[in-house]
Amino acid sequence: MLRIALPNKGRLNQDCRDLLNDAGLEVRASSERALTASLGGEFEAIFVRAQDIPEFVADGAADAGITGWDLVAESERALESRLDLGFGRCRLVVAARDDGGVRSLADLTDVPRVATVFPNLTRAYFAAANKAVQVVPVSGAVEVAPHLGIADLIVDLTSTGSTLKVNGLREVATVLESS
Fold first, then answer.
1. I want to staple 122 with a disulfide (CB 3.0 to 4.6 A). Which of 15, 21, 79, 155 is the partner?
2. Strands, E, within the chain: which ranges?
3. Is the pTM of this model over 0.70?
């Protein structure tokens, strides 16, 4: 039986469930918090953290998975995208404080500290731009890092940019687009 790794919670979880139900693959689980489920009686779903899906697929624990391209790219595992499902659209962006002097990468003169949940993509992006940076890995609440003096810039996901604006940050560059 084909095993498909799906996000265990969040917006992607619901979008995946809706997509599978629309395709006639009803998600049948023993409870809302079950780790596995039947998909239309034809496939098995395993529910894991979205960021773990690339590892589960690469290691053969799942035959396929549904997760964001940002997480696949960050994993640096040799996986391929078979289909862009079109939901969960977002951008991984470089952002700086509104009240700072950085408007573009050209404004970087020193080696900035960059806080991010995506250290691999961040290093690769700045290396390709020939900009030296010091990556500060964090696990969440990236937007606060420049205000606490932990970092000069951040690299984080955004859909609309509203969270960045609310936190006094401005987009400087796009690292990648994801869905």
1. 155
2. 3-7, 27-28, 36-39, 43-48, 64-65, 90-97, 113-116, 134-137, 153-158, 169-178
3. yes
- What is the reported pLDDT for 83? 93
Beta-bridge partners for 90? 178
Strand partners, 28: 38
Q: What is the mean pLDDT of each run of 10 residues along the chain (179 residues)?
A: 94 92 91 88 94 97 97 96 93 95 88 97 97 95 94 96 94 96
Distance CA 103, CA 111 (A): 16
* Burial of 72 from C-beta contacts in 10 A (0-12 / 13-18 / 19+): buried
> Can you give the pLDDT at residue 109?
82
CB-side neighbour CA atoms (13 Å) of 92 = 23
Structural tokens at position 71: 């997480």
Give me the phi and psi of 57, to 5 degrees please: -70, -45
AA identity, residue 34: A
Euclidean distance between CA atoms 36 and 125, whole angstroms: 36
Classify each residue of 132-168 as buried b or exposed e, where b means 16 or more C-beta atoms within 10 Å of its C-beta. Answer: ebebbebeeebbebbeeeebbbbbbbbeeeeebeebe
Bridging pattern class, strands 3-7 and 27-28: unpaired
CB 172 within 8 A of CB 162: no
Q: Tokens 């084909």 identify what position? A: 2
